[in-house]
């Protein structure tokens, strides 16, 4: 169990459906002052975004802001043998990709597949376990997802 858990969860309201011994709470992985959690429920991007933000408090669907972080997140996918949503979307304005409300300036789009290639049809980004880069895809697909929170 993560030693900072009491602090992390003691000072924030925890939803009634997530208790302190819930695997959702204890399975966070620390990397570079941030905590990451693979959520083993396949859902659409919008719901994944909401779950990270609302059910886990102070968390968000993972934001990937460096090559190193991308490699770390990739290791989570290969370990769990899953593809996963990341917190990147251009649903608000086509071509303007944002992590939450912050316009992104770091990308690892798949070049061989010429991503992002979906225009107004594909507005959410997924990371596959098969390779490190990202793909835009329709938001209604269902994938597992990774939540991230700042290390406290
Ligand atoms: Ca798009
Ligand atoms: Ca695409």
TrEMBL record:
The keyword Cytoplasm is assigned to this record: no
Domain C-type lectin: residue ranges: 31-148
Pfam families the UniProt entry points to: Lectin_C
The entry's keywords: Disulfide bond
Protein name as catalogued: C-type lectin domain family 4 member M
Family annotation (SUPFAM superfamilies): C-type lectin-like
InterPro entries listed in its UniProt record: C-type_lectin-like, C-type_lectin-like/link_sf, C-type_lectin/snaclec_domain, C-type_lectin_CS, CTDL_fold
Entry annotated with the keyword Disulfide bond: yes
Organism: Holothuria leucospilota
């Amino acid at each position: 169990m993560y030693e900072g858990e009491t602090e992390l969860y003691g000072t924030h309201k925890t939803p009634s459906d997530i208790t302190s011994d819930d695997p959702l709470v204890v399975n966070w992985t620390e990397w570079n002052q941030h905590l990451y959690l693979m959520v083993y429920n396949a859902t659409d991007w919008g719901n994944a975004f909401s779950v990270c933000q609302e059910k886990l408090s102070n968390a968000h669907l993972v934001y990937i802001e460096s090559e190193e972080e991308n490699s770390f997140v990739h290791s989570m996918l290969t370990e769990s043998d899953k593809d996963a949503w990341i917190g990147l979307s251009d649903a608000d304005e086509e071509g303007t990709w944002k992590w939450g409300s912050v316009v992104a300036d770091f990308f690892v789009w798949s070049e061989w597949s010429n991503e992002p290639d979906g225009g107004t049809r594909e507005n959410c980004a997924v990371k596959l376990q098969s390779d490190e880069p990202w793909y835009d895809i329709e938001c209604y697909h269902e994938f597992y997802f990774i939540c991230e929170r700042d290390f406290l």
